[in-house]
Amino acid sequence: METLDGIINHKPQVERNTILFRSGAALQGLYAVRSGSFKTYRSTSDGAEQITGFYFPGELLGLDGFGDNIHRCTAQALESSSVCALTMQDFEKLCCKISGLRHQLMHLIGTEINQDHETLLTLGQMKGEERLAAFLNNLSLRLEQRGFSANEFNLSMPRHDLANYLGLAVETLSRMFSRMQDEGVLTANRRNIHILDWDKLRTLAHQDQGCSNNY
Amino acid sequence: METLDGIINHKPQVERNTILFRSGAALQGLYAVRSGSFKTYRSTSDGAEQITGFYFPGELLGLDGFGDNIHRCTAQALESSSVCALTMQDFEKLCCKISGLRHQLMHLIGTEINQDHETLLTLGQMKGEERLAAFLNNLSLRLEQRGFSANEFNLSMPRHDLANYLGLAVETLSRMFSRMQDEGVLTANRRNIHILDWDKLRTLAHQDQGCSNNY
DNA sequence: CGTATCTTTGATTTACTTCAAAACTTGTGG
DNA sequence: CCACAAGTTTTGAAGTAAATCAAAGATACG
């Protein structure tokens, strides 16, 4: 990713709510998040929306356009952010010439797919409180990998977006936060989250003992 | 995909229930489905499972291993099937040398991601009956693209698997089939499905007028 | 300071799960 | 070929988690 950052010159700053690409638009290229955060969402014909992912520094936006060179989701900044813009021409060249970069891109593709599958598991199998626990566990891990604190962080998305992502009503999500606070798992002041009891959180998220993915 | 089929020699036949790769196993390569069908699933530490996808001829299995070269889901044959096995060495070579094949692989990657996002939308936004309608609509489309009948087909998966994929209890799924039969949308005799009323089905699936993905 | 947005809390309704059991299908050995 | 066991699918009744409806606090913002 640092390599990519060195090669590519086009690194636009984007304001909160800026749309990087829209569903239905032709694929121009990919975007690596440098700072800030983004959400992607899909819509149905009757206006319902589903947030399909949140993206943090080092993660790649735009792979949904690989299907038929048309984006199937919309990518929007959750806060002031910056990205590294990679045209498809760049992508093609770099992908063939630099094997390290190719592997890095393959890694990011796999990570995207695994993240989506993890969310499918969350939506398909878990109750509300478990979904929130799984999300916070996953988010904390990703933030920690990026050098942020794992125990204390600020959510960059409003409750509305988080509830949508977790397939819950905003009111239900709020109740889950309250319940987890009562249980002493965390404190939540609006966007500010402190994780107090990792054991309880991991148990709720069914990630205890870390053997969830080992065969 | 025909190109791939011509280049690669290793095309094993697999029996029903055969496991192509397991969660936790090192990534050996990718598998293109030639005939039959597969499911992939993930497990939590406490034994809950979530089916993350069904795969039909022309679709690619194994991309989940790109993340860190370890599979995060298990792939299992739903019926007697055959695949085209592609080692990672083959993949690397072909990917760089044949641009058409590279584009085809990128297309399949994008398709996988879009399929996952569509399922996220289904699980996150829809009620039981709508989920089933969305699934049948999607399945019918995929089967039609492969030369099968869009109106009449046999499900290769048991109710149990379909219910799991759709995030429902088996009993609920069964009731949804019954209700749709009563409504005259389809007839369902165990695995055999006849779609009778496409308008109703698409309306239920929120795919009416086909503008679900535009802008 | 007042308006719009975001978040929380309470009461009611609803869709789905769970538990229980019957009907049907398939395969196996007598 | 039939009997029987194992698996699959359907149906019914009761319980529950979450959605919806309604409204009040809290925070940011012009």
Secondary structure category of chain A: alpha+beta
Work out the helix count of chain A. 7
What fraction of residues of chain A sit in β-strands?
A: 15-25%
* Tally of strands of chain A: 11
* Run of helices and strands of chain A: HEEEEEEEEHHHEHHEEH
Distance between the termini of chain A: 30 Å
Fraction of helical residues of chain A = 40-55%
Quaternary assembly: homodimer
- Order of strands across the main sheet of chain A: 1-8-3-6
Kindly report the average pLDDT value of chain A.
Answer: 92
Gross morphology of chain A = globular
Spans of chain A of at least 5 consecutive residues whose pLDDT stays below 50 are 210-215
User: What kind of sheet is the major sheet of chain A?
Assistant: 4 strands, antiparallel
C-alpha Rg of chain A (nearest Å)? 18 Å
Question: Hey, which two chains have the biggest interface?
Answer: A-B, 58 and 60 residues
Describe this structure in words.
The structure is a homodimer of 215-residue chains. By secondary structure, chain A is an alpha+beta fold. Helices cover 41% and strands 23% of the residues of chain A. Chain A is built from seven helices and eleven strands. Chain A has helices at 2-7, 88-97, 99-125, 128-145, 159-165, 170-182, 198-204, and strands at 13-14, 19-21, 29-35, 38-43, 49-55, 60-61, 74-77, 81-87, 152-154, 186-189, 192-195. A four-stranded antiparallel sheet of chain A has the order 1-8-3-6. In chain A, β10 (186-189) and β11 form a beta hairpin. In chain A, α2 crosses α3 and α5 (159-165) packs across α6. The longest helix of chain A is centred in the middle third of the chain and has 27 residues, at 99-125. The radius of gyration of chain A is 18 Å and the shape is globular. Mean pLDDT of chain A is 92; it is low at 210-215. The structure holds a DNA duplex (30 and 30 nucleotides).
